[in-house]
Design goal:
By secondary structure, this protein is α+β, with helices and mostly antiparallel strands. It has one domain: Nucleoside diphosphate kinase-like domain (Alpha-Beta Plaits, 2-Layer Sandwich), CATH 3.30.70.141. Helices cover 43% and strands 20% of the residues. The protein has eight helices and four strands. The chain has a four-stranded antiparallel beta sheet, with helices on both faces. The longest helix is centred in the last third of the chain and has 11 residues. It is globular and about 35 Å long. The structure holds adenosine-3',5'-cyclic-monophosphate.
């Protein structure tokens, strides 16, 4: 099934000049970058994006981290795009991610894990609409 998913290169990835490396992995995987922009989120914008985690102990630290510097936001599209991007990223905790994945190679901690990806069609719909307008999601 052709899907769309939201990908984020987090502040730790942008700060360490990993944008090109990560985009190269996306493009060679067969996924298409349908929309892309670089922005610095406010704490409020990060809180809205991660609202499902608002009761978690790591929420204040996560939203502060996500607004400490610019992020790259992308809509990726393709066959099984949600799972494909998750496979490229690896597990949330870099220490548990499969060797060769983005988070295993570049992640610094469970929080500073370099990339984000939607985990299901419903979250992909919310997350792509949170950052992109209708014309970019066509
Ligand atoms: P992400 O896939 O963007 O989804 C939620 C984020 O919370 C996660 O990646 C990490 O950056 C961050 N996080 C920090 N601590 C934890 C934790 N203990 N479990 C899951 N996610 C965490």
């Amino acid at each position: 099934m052709i899907e769309q998913t939201l990908a984020i290169i987090k502040p730790d990835g942008v700060a360490r000049n990993l944008i090109g490396e990560i985009i190269h992995r996306i493009e060679t995987s067969g996924l298409k970058i349908q929309a892309m922009k670089m922005v610095q989120l406010s704490v409020k914008q990060a809180e809205g994006f991660y609202a499902v985690h608002r009761d978690k102990p790591f929420f204040p630290s996560l939203t502060s981290f996500m607004s400490e510097g610019p992020v790259v936001l992308m809509i990726l599209s393709g066959e099984n795009a949600i799972q494909k991007w998750r496979d490229l990223m690896g597990a949330t905790d870099p220490a548990k991610a499969v060797p060769g994945t983005i988070r295993r190679e570049f992640g610094q901690s469970i929080e500073r894990n370099t990339t984000h990806g939607s985990d299901a069609p419903e979250t992909a719909a919310f997350e792509t609409a949170y950052f992109f307008g209708g014309m970019e999601r066509l």
